[in-house]
Amino acid sequence: MSRQNLVNKTAIVTGGTRGIGHAIAERLLEEGARVAICGTRQKSVDDALDLLSPKGDTFGVVADISKLEDVRNFVSAVMQKFSGIDILVNNAGAGIFRAVADLTPEEWQRMIGLNLTGTYYCCHEILPIFRQAGGGDVVNISSLAGKNAFAGGAGYNATKFGLNGFSEALMLDYRNEGIRVSTIMPGSVDTEFGRNPAESDRYVRRDKNAWKIAPEDIAEIVVTMLLMPRRTTVSSIEVRPSRPPGKT
Questions:
Q1: Strand ranges across the sheet with 10-14
Q2: pLDDT for 206
Q3: Alpha-carbon span 45 to 68, nearest angstrom
Q4: Phi, psi of 60 (to 5 degrees)
Q5: Which terminal residue of the chain, N or C, has fewer Cβ atoms less than 10 Å from its own Cβ?
Q6: Per-residue pLDDT tens over the stretch 13-27
Q7: Helix axes 19-30, 42-52, angle to 10 degrees
Q8: Which residues contact 164 (CB under 8 A, 6 or more apart)?
Q9: Does residue 29 register a pLDDT over 90?
C-alpha cells in the first residue's frame, strides 16, 4: 500500500496549546510536518512553543477562532511563514455543562462560537488555499456528545451534533477536488477539559482518570488518517475508553 508522507507538509492545529491539540501538534512534528498552532493567551502559546519547537518547525499566534478577523490574520500569518497550508485540524473548543435554564446566553454563544462557527471560519478561509493547491486534509475533532445527548449537555450537544453534520456535508462538497474531510468523535479523554485548574498539568495522570483515552491516542488516530492513501478517506471514527469504570 502506498502511504502518504507528512514531511514538509504544513498543518494548522487550532487550540494546539494544550490537551488533544498539543498532542496532535507534537505527533505531526514527529512525522516531519511543519505545525502552526493558536491559542487565546500569549503565555499559553509561548509555553506550548517552548515544548514543541525542539521537535520541529513550529509557529504560533494568539487567535480566538470565534472571531473571523482573528482567523483571517492567523491564516495570513501561516501563509507568510510557510507559504502554504496542507492540513487543517479543527480542535479548539469549549464545554460548559448546565441545564438549559441555567446556561447563560453568553455561555451558549461562546460554545457555538468556538465549537461550530470557529470551525466554519477556519474552513472558509483555508478551503480556497486547498483548492488552489489541488487538495488538502481537514480533520475535525468532535465528540461522542455529537451522537449521544445527555442531561446538562444541551449546549455542548448542540454544537457537536452540528459539527458532525457540517463535517459530513463538507466532505460531500469537496471530495472530488482532492480535499479529504475526517471527523474524530472521542469519548472521555484525560485532558484539562474535564479537570479543575489545580489538576491541569498534562503530564499528570490521576489514578482515577487512568481509564480515560490519552490525548496521544487521538493524535495517533489523526496521523493514521492523514497517512492513508489519497484514494481513501476515513470520514468518521468513534473512539471510546476500552475499560470505563463500572456504574455503582
A1: 58-62, 34-39, 10-14, 87-90, 136-141, 179-186, 236-239
A2: 53
A3: 19
A4: -150, 150
A5: C
A6: 999 999 999 999 999
A7: 30
A8: 142, 146, 147, 183, 185, 236
A9: yes
DSSP classification of residue 178? T
Cα–Cα distance for residue pair 135/84, rounded to 1 Å: 12
- Is 156 labeled as catalytic in the residue annotation? yes
Tell me how far the alpha carbon of residue 96 is from its chain's centroid: 18
Count of residues making up the chain: 248
| pLDDT value for 40 | 95
- Could you tell me the pLDDT band of residue 207, with boundaries at 50, 70 and 90? low
For residues 89 and 222, give the distance between their C-alpha atoms in angstroms, rounded to a whole number.
9
Q: Is 247 helix (H, G, I), strand (E, B) or coil?
A: coil
C-alpha cell at 52: 514543541
Among candidate residues 120, 121, 156, 174, the one labeled active-site is: 156
Alpha-helical runs (H) found in 134-205 = 154-174
- Using only the alpha carbons of the chain, give its radius of gyration: 17
Residue 94 phi/psi, 5° resolution? -145, 150
d(CA 15, CA 72): 16
How many helices (H) and strands (E) the chain has is answered by: 7, 7
